UniProtKB/TrEMBL annotation:
Domain Kinesin motor, first and last residues per copy: 1-327
One term of GO molecular function: ATP binding
Residues at which ATP binds: 58-65
Source organism of the structure: Ceriporiopsis subvermispora (strain B) (White-rot fungus)
GO CC terms of this entry: kinesin complex; microtubule; nucleus
InterPro entries listed in its UniProt record: Kinesin-like_fam (IPR027640), Kinesin_motor_CS (IPR019821), Kinesin_motor_dom (IPR001752), Kinesin_motor_dom_sf (IPR036961), P-loop_NTPase (IPR027417)
Name of the featured protein: Kinesin-like protein
UniProt cross-references to Pfam families, sorted A to Z: Kinesin
Chain coiled-coil ranges: 402-429
Length: 430
């Protein structure tokens, strides 16, 4: 890309830069072609049991919402409505396994001013982000998940949720999204011959994210609440970039160790070089953490503003995209969930009430190799920062009564989980 005004103004950006991407779509690309090339493979993977993330990134007024949601004219439907149409109306396109039944659940949330809100809720209360008892990731506590039986029903729900989303006008964009919107499509996959077995239920999820656009106040001329919103938007996007950079640096550190050793590497030899990934510095990255540490496949769509005045902003977007492109994930097929796989209460739970185990470690398999080179791999431990980490590592005394109560809580949680699975089976049969 070349700065059209580099001869007449001073810019902090190099006037000529070259970036490499997986694919470039010109402005006249049809929405149908764009969906087929970017999203359809992701939908197939999700229906086969993998988790998937797709997010649109770019400056304000660059077309992110149009990419995700689309327009009102024929043929202008975006990624989200086309995804729903394919899931419900085009099983031949996806080549679904006829031996399985699928149920679809929908949730809709937004991250606004570093708070998470449920757009399906009638009350404007913020939700918290909590650690999942069934897996090592995070989830939005209290977020409504509604079962949908048709694409039309799902679209109607999303249209209702969209009415609750924060959208205001600025000088740069008359319909500026002031929050990050996250639509999660959860798929329950049940084998037809094992409907009564809770262990046969396989869950996967696809999250489509319409990120709010980065802004510069000199262009948007915002003030008051709009200025505060812009500050939180820019902060969360900055943290997202920091997470991408840290993941990239950590993966390169492991790759260098692989190149030197030429054989499987013990993570203890390289973990000292790993940096802490600052997922907890922003609600956005905290919610999306699972996808970035290897438990799903991620697709990033970069929206570029074609106007000359957006050169500096577009250059920053390009640099971030080039950075994110170097980050590798290791998507895996989710195994059917059985009650027996729920984590049991850990010893010394009375101490666990006051502080979490730190640091949180997540493992990602990284492979290297190429023509004429030996293929090697290693397990990369990704560290999540714990804000409550202290220097005192002494264990607190164990309270047997408290531990007994925690055991009972875990038992009740397992029973609740089993009941929810049975309800899902009953609903799948009706």
């Amino acid at each position: 890309m070349n700065d059209p005004q580099s001869h007449s103004r001073v810019s902090s950006i190099n006037p000529s830069s070259v970036y490499t991407f997986s694919h470039i779509f010109p402005s006249d690309t049809q929405q149908s072609e764009f969906f087929t090339r970017t999203t359809l493979p992701l939908v197939r993977d999700v229906l086969e049991g993998q988790n998937g993330l797709l997010f649109a990134y770019g400056v304000t007024n660059s077309g992110k919402t149009y990419t995700i949601q689309g327009g009102n004219t024929p043929g202008s439907a975006g990624i989200l409505p086309r995804t729903l149409d394919v899931i419900f109306n085009n099983p031949t396109v996806l080549k679904l396994d006829r031996n399985h039944e699928y149920t679809v659940w929908l949730s809709y949330a937004e991250v606004y001013n570093e708070k998470v809100y449920d757009l399906f809720a009638s009350v404007d209360d913020c939700n918290s982000v909590a650690a999942s008892p069934a897996r090592a990731g995070k989830y939005i506590a209290g977020l409504r998940q509604i079962r949908v039986r048709s694409a039309a029903q799902a679209k109607a729900l999303l249209k209702l949720g969209q009415l609750h989303r924060r959208v205001f006008g600025t000088v740069a964009n008359s319909q500026s999204s002031r929050s990050h919107a996250l639509v999660t499509i959860k798929i329950l996959r049940v084998h037809r011959g094992e409907r009564t077995d809770p262990a046969s239920i396989q869950t996967s999820r696809l999250t489509l994210v319409d990120l709010a656009g980065s802004e510069r106040n000199k262009h948007t001329q915002t003030s008051g609440d709009r200025l505060r919103e812009a500050g939180n938007i820019n902060k969360s996007l900055m943290v997202l970039g920091q997470c991408m950079e840290t993941l990239r640096v950590n993966q390169r550190a492991v790759a260098r160790s692989l190149a030197v050793s030429g054989e499987r590497v013990d993570t203890r030899d390289v973990k000292k070089a790993l940096a802490i990934v600052p997922f907890r510095h922003s609600k956005l990255t905290e919610v999306l953490m699972d996808y970035f540490v290897g438990e799903g496949r991620a697709v990033m769509i970069v929206n570029v503003n074609p106007y000359d005045t957006g050169f500096d902003e577009n250059s920053h977007v390009m640099k971030f995209a080039a950075l994110a492109r170097d980050v590798r994930t290791n998507p895996v097929v989710n195994a059917p969930r059985a009650v027996a796989t729920l984590p049991k209460a850990k010893p010394n739970l009375s101490a666990a009430r006051y502080k979490e185990v730190v640091p949180h470690r997540r493992k990602v398999t990284i492979s290297t190799g190429g023509p004429g080179r030996k293929v090697s791999e290693a397990q990369l431990e990704v560290l999540e920062e714990d804000e409550e980490r202290g220097d005192d590592d002494d264990e607190e005394p164990v309270d047997p009564l408290v531990d007994t109560l925690f055991d009972e809580i875990e038992s009740l949680r397992a029973q609740l989980f089993q009941a929810e699975l049975q309800c899902a089976i009953v609903e799948a049969e009706t």
